[in-house]
Write a structure and sequence with these properties.
Blueprint (H helix, E strand, L loop, with lengths): L2 E2 L12 H10 L5 H21 L5 E3 L7 H9 L15 H9 L1 E2 L2 E3 L5 E3 L6 E3 L2 E2 L11 H11 L4 E6 L1 H7 L1 E2 L10 H17 L4 E5 L9 H14 L5 E5 L9 H4 L6 E5 L7 H7 L5 E7 L9 H15 L3 E5 L18 H4 L5 H17 L3 H14 L7 H8 L12 H12 L16 H11 L5 H22 L3 E2 L11 H4 L2 E5 L6 E4 L2 E3 L3 E8 L5 H8 L5 E7 L1 H6 L9 H21 L4 E5 L14 H16 L7 E6 L8 H7 L3 E4 L10 H6 L4 E4 L12 H14 L18 H21 L4
Parallel strand pairs: 1-14, 2-8, 7-9, 8-10, 10-11, 11-12, 12-13, 13-14, 15-20, 20-21, 21-22, 22-23, 23-24
Antiparallel strand pairs: 3-4, 5-6, 16-19, 17-18
Helix pairs in contact: 1-2, 7-8, 11-13, 15-22, 17-18, 22-23, 23-24, 26-27
Enzyme class: transferase
Pathway: Amino-acid biosynthesis; L-methionine biosynthesis via de novo pathway; L-methionine from L-homocysteine (MetE route): step 1/1
Catalytic activity: 5-methyltetrahydropteroyltri-L-glutamate + L-homocysteine = tetrahydropteroyltri-L-glutamate + L-methionine
C-alpha cells in the first residue's frame, strides 16, 4: 500500500497569525516568550491539520520566523560578523538582525541581501560566506521542534536544505572564490545534525536539493555525489527531494546516489513516471509529487490514479505520494472561502485540501474503489468545457498580434532627445517607486468601504485626501517626479485583477512572500480583458494637485501573470499577451489624460524564467514581447519606466534591454551597487535608477551613505543616465521614517548636483 507524506506546510497560519505576532514583537507590544508561544501554537495547529488529513510523516523544520534559508544559516553558524551577538551566541534577535538590519534588542546594521527562491515569489535571505568561513552547530530550534512534535505523538520527517543547494544559493561576502571549497568544512556539521536527529528517535530526514532542477556544471554534480555519500549512514534514512522542474539530466547520477529514497516533482517539467520507477531499486522509496504544490487547482485524481496504479502494484510500501513541493506556496484552507463564486470554488484546492487529495488517492489504491475519485474529479472536467472560461473576442485580439505591436515609434536614441526636451528634468532626477505608506487609516477606510459601512463617494473622498497628502509631502521634500502614492490599492496585482475580467479573489488566500510580508494572489480562471480605465481618474486627480510631473503607475503583464494563481489550461505566453493588451489600452488612456511618464512594474520578470538555462531564451522572448506590447502604443515623448527588484540581472540583461523601457529602476542598495555590474558589462543603453536605500529595513540612510552609493553607480553608468530613487515601494514603511529617508536622499542628490556643477 502507498504511503503519504508532505514536504512542508504554510507557516503563516490560517489568518496570518505569524505575521501579526512577529510584527507585534518588532513593535515591542509582546515579549519574546509570548512570540515563541504564538509560533508554537501555529506549529501545533499545522501538525494537527496534516495528521487529520492522514499524513503519515509530518514535516518539521519547515516553520520559520522569517525564512527557512536563514534558519539554515543559523543552524550552521554562518552568521555575518556584523550581526553576531557580543558573546557569540545565536538567538531569535540574531535572526531578525540578519533579515531586517534591526531587532528589538538593538543593532542597526545592514541587513543581508534578499532574492527570489528559484522561480517563485518567495524571497530568501542570501547566506554571506567568506573564503575562510567556519561552520558550527549553533541554533537548536530544529531539535526543539522535533521534541515538540514527538511529545504530541507524531511521527516526523525533519526537513533540511541540502549542503549543495545551500552553497549554490550563497554569495561570496568579500573576495570571489569557489564556494564548493567550503564543502569539506560544511559536511561535518550536517553529519552532526543528522546524528543528533537520530538520537532524538528520527527515522527519516528529508534533504532538499532543488538545484537538481538546474543544469549544473560538472563540479556541482560531483559535489552532490560527495555530499550524499557523506550524509549516508549517520543513523537516519535520507529522502532526497528535488522540485520545481524535472531531474532528467541526472537520471544516471540518481541511480547511484546512496539514499534511502528520492522525491520527484511530477507536476513541473516533463516526467516519465515509469522511468522514475526504474531509476530506484526495490529497496528504495519512490516519492512522487503528484499534487501541484504551487497552484490552487483541484487535481484530476482519476487521471493521476491511472498513471500510478501500475507502479503502486509493483512497489507497494515503497511508493510514497506527496505534493510536488512544499505547500508553502499555497493558501492554507479553502473552507474559509465562503464568498467565492460557487462554481469557481469547486475548481480549487488549497493546502489542506491537497493533503485530502493524497488521502483519497491512497484509499483508492488500497481499496481499488474509484467512484469517489471520479466524483471528486467531475468539477475539473466541467471546468475544461465551461463557456465562462473562453472569450472569443479576446482570443481573436491575441491571435492578431504581430511584431509591430511590440515596437515604439522610434529608437531610444531618438526618443530620449524628445523626452529631455518635453520633460525638462534636472541631472540625477529624483523619484520614488510608486507606493507610499499604507496607514491604518487607509486600511480602515478600505475595510469599511468593502463592508458597505461607507459609501463609494465617502471612500473616494478619503482616498483623494490621502493622495493630496502624499503629493504635499513630496513637494515639501522637493522630489522631481511625483507619484500619487497608491492609497486606493490593496496590492499591486490584486488591485488590477479586481478590475479585469477573468480574475477571482479570495478572502484568506494568503501566501508568504518574505518575512512577515504576505500576498493574496488573484486567480486567473478565464480569458482576460479590460472593460474600463483602472487608474486614470486617480492619476489625473493627483496631477491636478501639482505643477510637477506625475508618474502613472501600473503593474506589468509578466508580473500580473506570475503573481497570480494562473490557469493551467492555457499556455503562459497567451495569458501574458491577454494581460498586455488590457494594459496597453490603460497606458494609452493615461497618456491621453496628460500623464507623460508611466511606470510599468515588472519585478517578477526574472522570477518567471525556467530553471534550465537551455529554456531561457524562449521565455525571455515572449516575456519581453508582452511588456513591449503593453508599453508601445504611446508617442515618443511619453517616457516609459519599469521597475525590478530582488533579482539577479546578469542572466537577463539582454532581455531587459529588449524590453526597451526608457528608464529602469532596480534594487541595488543591499548589494552595495554590485548588481549594476551587469548593466555596466553589457553597456546597457537606456536610463537607470539604482536604489540608494533599502526600504525593507527601518533604518534611515544618512546623506553620506546615499552619496557614496550614487558615486559608485556613476562609476559604472554615465551620470547623465542616472536617476535617484529608493530600492522599492514604500507601502510597508511608516511616514516618519519615509520622510526622513527621502529627505536625506534628496539632500544627497542636491549636494552631488552642486559638486557636478549642475545647479
Amino acid at each position: 500500500m502507498a504511503y503519504i507524506h508532505n514536504l512542508g506546510f504554510p507557516r503563516i497560519g490560517k489568518k496570518r497569525e505569524l505575521k501579526f505576532a512577529v510584527e507585534s514583537y518588532w513593535r515591542g507590544e509582546i515579549n519574546q516568550d509570548e512570540l515563541l508561544e504564538k509560533g508554537k501554537a501555529i506549529r501545533v495547529e499545522n501538525w494537527a491539520i496534516q495528521a487529520n488529513a492522514g499524513i503519515e510523516l509530518l514535516p518539521v523544520g519547515d516553520f520559520a520566523w522569517y525564512d527557512h534559508i536563514l534558519n539554515t544559516s543559523l543552524l550552521l553558524g554562518a552568521i555575518p560578523k556584523r550581526h553576531v551577538n557580543t558573546d557569540g551566541s545565536v538567538d531569535l534577535d540574531t535572526l531578525f538582525r540578519v533579515s531586517r538590519g534591526k531587532s528589538p534588542s538593538g543593532c542597526a546594521c545592514a541587513a543581508s541581501e534578499m532574492t527570489k527562491w528559484f522561480n517563485t515569489n518567495y524571497h530568501y535571505i542570501v547566506p554571506e560566506l567568506s573564503k575562510d568561513q567556519s561552520f558550527g552547530l549553533s541554533w537548536q530550534a530544529l531539535f526543539e521542534e522535533v521534541g515538540e512534535a514527538h511529545s504530541l505523538g507524531y511521527k516526523v520527517k525533519p526537513v533540511l536544505v541540502g549542503p549543495i543547494t545551500y552553497l549554490h544559493l550563497a554569495k561570496c561576502a568579500d573576495e570571489s572564490f569557489n564556494k564548493l571549497s567550503l564543502l569539506d568544512k560544511l559536511l561535518p556539521v550536517y553529519q552532526q545534525v543528522l546524528k543528533k536527529l537520530a538520537e532524538l528517535g528520527v527515522e527519516w530526514v528529508q534533504v532538499d536539493e532543488p538545484v537538481l532542477a538546474l543544469e549544473l556544471p560538472e563540479e556541482y554534480r560531483s559535489a552532490l555525489n560527495t555530499s550524499l555519500a557523506a550524509l549516508n549512514e549517520q543513523g537516519v534514512k535520507i529522502l532526497l527531494a528535488s522540485y520545481f522542474d524535472s531531474v532528467k539530466d541526472y537520471y544516471e547520477d540518481i541511480q547511484h546516489y546512496p539514499v534511502a529514497g528520492v522525491h520527484f516533482d511530477c507536476v513541473a517539467g516533463e516526467q516519465d513516471l515509469a522511468k522514475l520507477n526504474q531509476l530506484l531499486n526495490d529497496e528504495q522509496v519512490l516519492s512522487l509529487g503528484l499534487i501541484n504544490g504551487r497552484n490552487i487547482w483541484r487535481a484530476d485524481l482519476s487521471s493521476i490514479y491511472n498513471q500510478i496504479e501500475p507502479i503502486a502494484q509493483s512497489r507497494g510500501d515503497n511508493l510514497w505520494l506527496a505534493p510536488s513541493c512544499s505547500l508553502l506556496h499555497t493558501p492554507v484552507d479553502l473552507e474559509q472561502e465562503d464568498k467565492l463564486d460557487a462554481e469557481i470554488r469547486d475548481w480549487l484546492a488549497f493546502a489542506k485540501q491537497k493533503l485530502q487529495e493524497l488521502k483519497l488517492l491512497k484509499l483508492a489504491i488500497e481499496n481499488e474503489e474509484l467512484t469517489t475519485l471520479d466524483l471528486y474529479s467531475e468539477p475539473v472536467k466541467a471546468r475544461a468545457s465551461s463557456k465562462r472560461v473562453n472569450n472569443i473576442m479576446v482570443q481573436e485580439k491575441v491571435a492578431s498580434l504581430n511584431a509591430n505591436h511590440g515596437k515604439r515609434q522610434s529608437a531610444f536614441s531618438e526618443r530620449v532627445k524628445k523626452q529631455q526636451a518635453s520633460l525638462g528634468l534636472p541631472l540625477l532626477p529624483t523619484t520614488t517607486i510608486g507606493s507610499f505608506p499604507q496607514t491604518q487609516a487607509i486600511r480602515q477606510a478600505r475595510k469599511e468601504f468593502k463592508a458597505g459601512i461607507i459609501s463609494a463617494a465617502e471612500y473616494e473622498n478619503q482616498m483623494q485626501a490621502e493622495i493630496r497628502y502624499a503629493v504635499e509631502e513630496q513637494e515639501a521634500l522637493d522630489i522631481d517626479v511625483l507619484v500619487h502614492g497608491e492609497a486606493e490599492r490593496n496590492d499591486m496585482v490584486e488591485y488590477f485583477g479586481e478590475q479585469l475580467e477573468g480574475f477571482a479573489f479570495t478572502q484568506f488566500g494568503w501566501v508568504q512572500s518574505y518575512g512577515s510580508r504576505c500576498v493574496k494572489p488573484p486567480i486567473i480562471w478565464g480569458d482576460v480583458s479590460r472593460e474600463e480605465p483602472m487608474t486614470v481618474s486617480w492619476t489625473q486627480y493627483a496631477q491636478a494637485q501639482t505643477a510637477k510631473k506625475m508618474k502613472g503607475m501600473l503593474t506589468g503583464p509578466v508580473t500580473i501573470l506570475f503573481w497570480s494563481f494562473t490557469r493551467d489550461d492555457l499556455d503562459k505566453p497567451s495569458i501574458a499577451n491577454q494581460i498586455a493588451l488590457a494594459l496597453r489600452d490603460e497606458v494609452v488612456d493615461l497618456q491621453n489624460a496628460g500623464i507623460d511618464i508611466i511606470q510599468i512594474d515588472e519585478p517578477a520578470f526574472r522570477e518567471g524564467m525556467p530553471l534550465k538555462a537551455s529554456e531561457w531564451q524562449s521565455y525571455l522572448d515572449w516575456a519581453a514581447y508582452a511588456f513591449r506590447v503593453s508599453a508601445s502604443g504611446v508617442k515618443d515623448e511619453t517616457q516609459i519606466h519599469t521597475h525590478m527588484c530582488y533579482a539577479k540581472f546578469n542572466d537577463i540583461i539582454g532581455a531587459i534591454a529588449d524590453m526597451d523601457a526608457d528608464v529602469i529602476t532596480i534594487e541595488t542598495s543591499r548589494s552595495n551597487m554590485e548588481l549594476l555590474n551587469a548593466f555596466e558589462d553589457f553597456a546597457y543603453p537606456n536610463e537607470i535608477g539604482p536604489g540608494v536605500y533599502d526600504i525593507h529595513s527601518p533604518n534611515v540612510p544618512d546623506i553620506v551613505w546615499v552619496k557614496s552609493l550614487i558615486h559608485k553607480a556613476a562609476k559604472k553608468i554615465p551620470v547623465e543616465r542616472l536617476w535617484v530613487n529608493p530600492d522599492c515601494g514604500l507601502k510597508t514603511r511608516g511616514w516618519e521614517e519615509t520622510r526622513a529617508a527621502l529627505e536625506n536622499m534628496v539632500k544627497a542628490t542636491k549636494e552631488l548636483r552642486e559638486e557636478l556643477g549642475a545647479n
